[in-house]
Amino acid sequence: MKNNSGKRIGIFGFGCVGQGLHDVLQDNTHLEVVKICVRDKEKLRTLPSNRFTYDPQELLQDETIDLFAELISDPEEAFFIVRQALKAGKIIVSANKKMVSENLPELVELQKQYGGTLLYEAAVCGSIPILRTLEAYYGNEQLQEVSGILNGSSNYILTKLDAEGLSYDDALQQAQELGFAEADPTLDVGGYDAMHKISLIAAHAFGALPAPSDILRAGIQHIAKRDVSLAQALGARIRLVASAKLDIKHKLLVQVLPTFVFPESELYYVEAEFNGVQLKAKYAGDQFLKGRGAGSHPTGSAVWADISAALAGYKYTYQKLDRAAVQLEEDAALKLYLRTSKPTLLPELAWLELTSFGVDAQAEQLVGTIKRKDLLQHLQALEAADAFVAEIPTYVTVEELVKASVPLLEEISGY
């Protein structure tokens, strides 16, 4: 490690992550915070006003600054800042997963062209060093699957539903009060946050650059009590699982879906705001990483880890991006559980096979198999029908589902 003494940093953003990084930096006095750039001049903050600037160029044009930390929520503004820093050949770290995932090809090219460095570990799994692990240990290893719980907010909500029987609204309110979920939770509970994260993982694990429109994504916002109870009756838990895996044709399946997870999976035991990531490698076998995926200090510490690594000369190598591109698989089928309280609004899905069960005056429950591409094109219509969809393992039979649902029909009225 090179000595970081005398290094100067400019920080963009002083929200949850920015404040967490600032707290971490108090124990690392060799790095001087020049100023923190924020947008709102009227907002009350925990530091004196002279520590802040409201003009990004005051930092970006300061030749004495050695590196930047971009920690703002606006992806377009974040991209402007990161792009300008890279064009100046600077070091910059970012926690903005949407910005990085949607612009990764250009960001990689800017690093090559101008010699700057961009690290974004904090954008993916909070305190879990998944990107560093993929780069350092699996850069030349053939991975078969990377899957995990990548959003601490939705996992906190699902844990409360499963363990305490809370309503979705009550669990969401708790997550917001604890700072795990935003006032507008759509990005978290809708699966968008995890979608951007799994796209970054796919780039480092498989050399793929899937567009958001190519990723099969559904969230947990329409989950109901009977869904949770059905999973419990089967001995499972519902978790929002993001995955990227190769099929037998060596094509890549990328998705974010609520999933019935059973005790044989490590993800079954990932609770509250924690994240967990499973890696399946051809030769190295299986690995599992777990850590806090939400919160000011866990994410701030991940930013600090990137800063320390960048100052020591670390860069992403993107080894797998430079190889032959992996094609995305669209025709593969998956087994799906679907429940809606508005069955008349359901779109006409091209089911390969379908069984209806648990039908009553309040809801209809279905289980069947469908091609990924056919489900992908109807996701918006399913959301409009308040449909909750979840992947279910192929070994779970229709008979087991029917048996598990029978006691629920008279006992459960839904949320």
TrEMBL record:
EC number: 1.1.1.3
The reaction(s) this protein catalyses: L-homoserine + NADP(+) = L-aspartate 4-semialdehyde + NADPH + H(+)
Keywords of the record: Amino-acid biosynthesis, Methionine biosynthesis, NADP, Oxidoreductase, Threonine biosynthesis
Pathway(s) this gene product operates in, as recorded in its UniProt entry: Amino-acid biosynthesis; L-threonine biosynthesis; L-threonine from L-aspartate: step 3/5; Amino-acid biosynthesis; L-methionine biosynthesis via de novo pathway; L-homoserine from L-aspartate: step 3/3
Keyword Oxidoreductase: yes
Ranges of residues in domain Homoserine dehydrogenase catalytic: 129-307
Family: Belongs to the homoserine dehydrogenase family.
Protein name: Homoserine dehydrogenase
